[in-house]
From TrEMBL:
Pfam families: PCuAC. Keywords: Signal. The lineage of its organism: Bacteria, Pseudomonadati, Pseudomonadota, Betaproteobacteria, Burkholderiales. Gene3D superfamilies: PCu(A)C copper chaperone. This is Copper chaperone PCu(A)C.
Length: 149
């Protein structure tokens, strides 16, 4: 019986999926054509975020913020490492998803479909289909989660 339970637990761990929490997209005003998407990503076995797409934008990329001399700059990256079992937070001023070439400004109350591609350490890819709410301009993750001090 214990052997059967161990096998069942091992199977559950093998098929554990990446989870997304606190996802949101920043609202826009005309004539903006770009915005960011933010969330917490947890991959039980570890891996990397290797792709993002959405019908709401012509281009969707994973970005990071880096210092270039005395200036903070944003740039696209090929992949974002997801350490096993640790939440990686995509947030304003840090790693985030950049949505560009948006025709109609996204406003609070809208929903944006996002597709994330996660590559596991074994090279297998997992696709996550999300419906992400748009939050008002000036929103922060703490304000979105209902966290109050």
């Amino acid at each position: 019986m214990l052997a059967g339970l161990s096998l069942l637990l091992a199977s559950a761990a093998t098929f554990a999926q990446t989870t997304i929490a606190d996802a949101w997209v920043r609202g826009m005003v005309a004539p903006q054509r770009a915005t960011g998407a933010f969330m917490k990503i947890t991959s039980p076995q570890g891996g990397k975020l290797v792709g993002v797409s959405t019908p709401a934008a012509r281009v969707a990329e994973v970005h990071e913020m880096v210092m270039q001399g005395d200036v903070m700059a944003m740039r696209a990256i090929e992949a974002l490492e997801l350490p096993a079992g640790r939440a990686v937070e995509l947030k304003p001023g840090g790693h985030h998803l950049m949505l560009m070439g948006i025709e109609q400004p996204l406003k609070a109350g809208d929903t944006v479909p996002l597709t994330l591609t996660i590559e596991g350490k074994d090279g297998k890819r997992e696709t996550l289909e999300l419906k992400v709410p748009v939050k008002a301009i000036g929103a922060t993750a703490a304000a979105q989660s209902g966290h109050k001090h």
